[in-house]
Amino acid sequence: MSDYEAAADIKPQIKALRHKAKTRPANRYFLTYCVLLITVMILCVNNLYLFISYKNFKQSFEESLNGMKAGNHERSELTRSNKKLLEENLIIKKENNSLKELNSVLSAQNQEILRQMEEIKKTNEELARKNKELVDDNIALQNSLKKAAAVGIKPQNYTNFDGISSRGELDRGSYLGKFLGTAYTPSADECGNNKGITNSGKPIVPGISVAVDKNHWPYGTVFYIKGLGYAVAMDTGSAIKGQKRFDFAVFDKNFAKNLGSKQWDVYLVKMGKGYVEDIKF
User: Fold this and answer.
1) Do residues 176 and 263 touch, judged by C-beta distance below 8 A?
2) Are 247 and 223 within 8 A, CB to CB?
3) 161, 215, 231, 270: which has the fewest Cβ within 10 Å?
4) Is the pLDDT of residue 1 over 50?
């Protein structure tokens, strides 16, 4: 091979090297572009992630802020409610103290009332005892009066009154008012006969039988006459007229005369049925 040929052979090789030298920067630029593109894409993705995270954080922050505002509002409401409750509690305490004071006063008054009630109870017991004594005295006097009324001239028919038994109280019934009262004997000069049979058909009972106006009082009506005791409507008479009039039966004329004619307080114990039942008081 000649020098020429060798040189010719060498030249193309230099060109090839030059070509290679030219192509290497282009490859570097491409790689750089790719790296930059990837970097930009990564940065974009990262920024997008950061944006989304920021947005979520902002939303969470706003929710937290709203929650804090709501919590503050609730705390404010609770504070007002608590203040109101404290004021009400203070009022209740004052009222409770007032009630305690009132309860103390009422307790003292209650104790005083109980003491007075106990005294009243003792007084009532004493009054009941005295009333029992008065009732017994009244009954004893009535029985004595009935016996005294049976002393004197006896008619052909009469019934002795057995007397009133002892009792806790007297049944006076309802007050009728003052009656004009007289006394009579079942003698022939006063009754036209001495048979001793009353207009009711029952034998006269001295100290018990009374003559009344049967248009106002049916036979069997029981009266309580203050000062004379119990009496039963059994008879009538021509001089006995009107609602507030009675004639008291006794056997002794002097006794009847001494009773005289006067006003008596009369009570209705039981209204009669037009006939005389067994006489019991």
Assistant:
1) no
2) no
3) 215
4) no
Count of the separate structural domains present in the chain: 1
171-208 per-residue burial string, b: 16 or more CB within 10 A, e: under 16? ebeeebeebebbbbbbbeeebeebebbbebebbbbbbb
**CA dist list (Å): 229 to 77, 145, 240:** 86, 9, 20
CA nearest to 229, candidates 276, 167, 164, 183: 164
The pLDDT value given to residue 23: 54
CATH number of the domain enclosing 213: 2.40.40.10
Write out the E strands in the chain: 174-184, 209-211, 222-225, 229-235, 245-249, 262-270
Residues 6+ apart with CB under 8 A from 216: 242, 243
pLDDT at position 177: 97
Given a cut of 80, whether residue 9 has pLDDT beyond it is no
207 within a domain of the structure (yes/no)? yes
Q: Which domain holds residue 175?
A: 150-270
Look at residue 132 and tell me if it is in a domain. Answer: no
Tokens, residue 194: 């001495």
Query: Residue 119 falls within a domain, yes or no?
Result: no
Domain presence at residue 64? no
For residue range 102-156, list pLDDT tens digits in order. Answer: 999 999 999 999 999 999 999 999 998 988 888 988 999 999 999 999 999 899 9
- Say how many Å lie between the first and final Cα of the chain, rounded: 186
pLDDT in tens, 46-98: 888 888 888 888 888 888 888 888 888 888 888 898 999 999 999 999 999 99
CB 169 within 8 A of CB 205: no
- pLDDT digit string (tens) for 168-208? 777 889 999 999 999 999 999 998 899 999 999 999 999 99
Reduced to 3 states (helix: H, G, I; strand: E, B; else coil), residue 183 is strand
Q: Is the pLDDT of residue 21 over 80?
A: no
